[in-house]
Amino acid sequence: MQRKTARIISQPQLDPMPWRISLPVTKRQSSKELHRLSTSSKTADHILRAPKCDKYQFISNFTHRRLTDPRELEALLKEKGIDNVTFCLPLWEQTDLSSGAHFMPLALFDDCEYDTFDPDVVGFWRNMEVIAITTPYTRWRSYTVINHDPCTNQWEVSERDSTTSYLIPRLQLYFPFEDPKKFAERIGTAVKARNTAENAIRFRFLCKHITSNGCFAPGRTLEQSILRRAGDEIYGVFKNLYEDYHIGLAVGQHLRTDGSVAIKQPSFSHSLRPPKDVPVDELKWERIVHLLDRFRRRTLLCDTNVFHALRLVNQECEMVRKLPMFVVASDKPIPLEEYEKLNLTQTSKTMKYLQNTWIERTTMHLHRLLSRIGNGHFNIGVGRWEIYNVMKLKRLIEQVLYRMQDALRDLLLDSTAAYVHYLVNDCSAVLAIEGEDYSWDGNLIDSPFEPQRPAVFYLLLEMGPDMPYYSTDPDTFPETLRHILDDILRACHFIHTIEPSLMQSLIFAENLYLSSVGLLDCAIVKQREALLEYYHKALLPLQAYAARYAAYRELFFTNVKEFVEQIKNADKSSSEIKEDIAFQIRMRENLEHTVPLCIVIGPFWINVQPLREALIRKRQELTAALLKMLTEKLRIKTADVITCYNAINERMCEKPVSIEHIYDIRAYMEEVPELVVRLEDRMRGILYEYEILEGFLHNLPDADFQQKWNALAYPRSVLKQMVSVKEFHESEVDRFRKQQFADEAAFTASIEDINAYISKFTTLYDVSKVSEMSVEVRRLWKTVQELIDQGHIMNRRQELFEMAPISLNNLYELRSNFSAYRELWTVAADYLKLEETWIGNPLASVDLDGVRRGLQQTHDSLKDLLPLFRDQPQLLAVVEHFIQVVEAFRPNLDIMELLKCPYLEAIHWGQLAKEIGVKGKLSVDVGFDVFLEHGFRDHLETVRRVVVKAEQLRLEQEARWAEEERIRQIEEAYRRARAERRQNRTEI
């Protein structure tokens, strides 16, 4: 064990991919250096020894972690997700790549780096008890290791006290000195590698068999460019590669997937005080004129068109204030999704009016009226900003802007108030809820949350696999209603001003919008909080009400067929089934009185009718199923009674074929009255069960009704049939007595004929006709046995007819005398058939142990026959002849055992053929008759010499392989150490 451990530790790490080809030693490596490494391996073992790998599978002290019970190993593999089916391959020849079945053997992906055990060097594994799994991969069992094939890494195992052996790969064999966790990781690594490889093959297969129809071909420009530069042949290769690449990409993608406006107040710089030297009247008039002029310069309403323009603007603003922004009225409760769609439609129409129609109509009114004024302070065609900034037109547009913003604000505030007023339908009980742990304690019909105004939203209560749920998730209501409100407020911030469309000679920025109501406006915040508070509290009783229906989940998902099967498996009596039916009826009536059609909880109108009808319908189905089951149960019981009556009639009415048959029927008929009484008692109990169905007003099918009354009328018909049968039997007894006399005469003649034939046949002793003699002997023996059986039958009939019995002594004596003769020819024929199979079949398929057993058994059987034929010299010679035939075959065993040596190769067979003088190719697949024809029995020593030489060559070859492996390991360790030293120098 110490030598084995050292070898395992010093073994280099293997390539995890066993199909890689290892590179040979480079020529630059010095042969002297290799010689020095090989000669100083003992002193430098601690330097050349490779470190333990994470995949190290061998454990030196395996008494701590070893597994000896196959069930423990199977449990460990199941924890790793490895099932016994993992080792299976499909039985069919061609694998369907579109299926998930494995089509590559698991042993192909075995990571040999785990296996640090070399069976060619250390042989303590032989006859060791291991755990393995063999065909048909049902479970892990204990086996004994017999042999190992180093070429294929196949291990031969067999069960204890069994001659059957199995060849299995290394992955299906666990030694007790291995780490079970590493062994499981080894199998798991192979499974992952196989899955990766099979997935890649399936992907290549899928890409290869996809018909692209030119969809992935290169474009016309690229095609012409390549054809112009490289030609048709190069373009054909490029096109195939290009299509394959893009088909792969398409398949992979398919598998991974689907501002503010500043206003300046005008300032007056001129004094209104008149000069002191001007007269008072003149001063008054001039002052009035001056003030009038100043007024005309300052006021906007200096022209009739301006007045009318502002009037029309005010009309448009009033129309805006009356626009419907939200849906605030409905004839009946509607689902949240439908309300959201209606709101979206209404909002879209209103926003379209605000962003387009309102601006266009206001601009049109101003343009139409201001254009009549012409040049001056209201010239809408001004093209310079410094002039526009001091014009009355700018102040007028600012006035219009303020009016429009005021109208927009009024619209939003009024619409928001109406929106919240419509949704919050004033249920004081909802607002009075405190805490999050509300539970519905009352009945399911009366709601303590009836609002003052009609409910807004429609909900359908449904039953889910885990718990009841609503058609719309209640948790979405607060956020959805808030988003509807906030989205409108955001959209109203993007209504353009009228300046760009009215003053087309000037250039304005694109982001000039009317100032709207903000999301954090005090009024909006108050309305939003009121809305969210109401709906957050309304969700508590809504969810608590749905939770009450969890008690009906089991009923809702009850499978009627499974329910009936459970009742049948429970084997309940009819009275118990009656109680179950009554219980289902009571529960159905309870549902009708305790579950409502609908209920209102705050803003929600809940439709419970579909769920209520489904629960009631399920109770009705269970009731009907129980009634049907009871009907079928009674039908089966009644049919069984009728079957018993029919069996009685059939048994009595059988046509007798012998006198024994008549006596059997008569014996049975004596028991018929008692059987009829018992069947009548059974039918009375069944009638009581029929009354249960009548109590539930269940109508029987016509066939069941007819069957019931037929069963009640059967006793009378059976007793009437008995009288007719007795009269028929009297006539049949006379007919069978006459037949007995004729059978007795024929039986006596048959005995005389067979006695004479056997006496003549036993004088034959031709050994060349063994096969014919054995067939005839077996036929005669069967005939004698049949005559003896027939004699017993006739004697029983003689007793029934009260006649004297027939003597069978001569038949017994004939069978005793003929038994030895039969044994001789059957043993001889069987041995000759075995000898033909041993000689004619290929030598590889011949079981030497079976040959030895067959020879010994035949020899012993023939020896036992010698004393029986001492008075018959001819037959005694036949026995001795076959004993000599058996003894003559025994020397063939030695030559057969030598020729079945597993170490004989083609070169050894050729040497045998040359030395013995055989012209032809010999092998273990040739029949033994070929070897006998060429006189191999006379060259036993030559064959033994060649076999011994083959065994010696095999031992030398194995030693040479072990030495080459040791040298290769030393060289690999040296190369790895040199690479590490170079890497260390590079890092420095």
TrEMBL record:
GO terms for molecular function: dynein intermediate chain binding; dynein light intermediate chain binding. The keyword Flavoprotein does not apply. One of its GO terms (biological process) is microtubule-based movement. The keyword Coiled coil applies. InterPro entries: DHC, Dynein_heavy_linker. GO terms for cellular component: dynein complex. Keywords: Coiled coil. Pfam families: DHC_N2 (PF08393). Residues 960-987 form a coiled coil. Residues 812-952 form the Dynein heavy chain linker domain. This is Dynein heavy chain linker domain-containing protein. It comes from Anopheles coluzzii (African malaria mosquito).
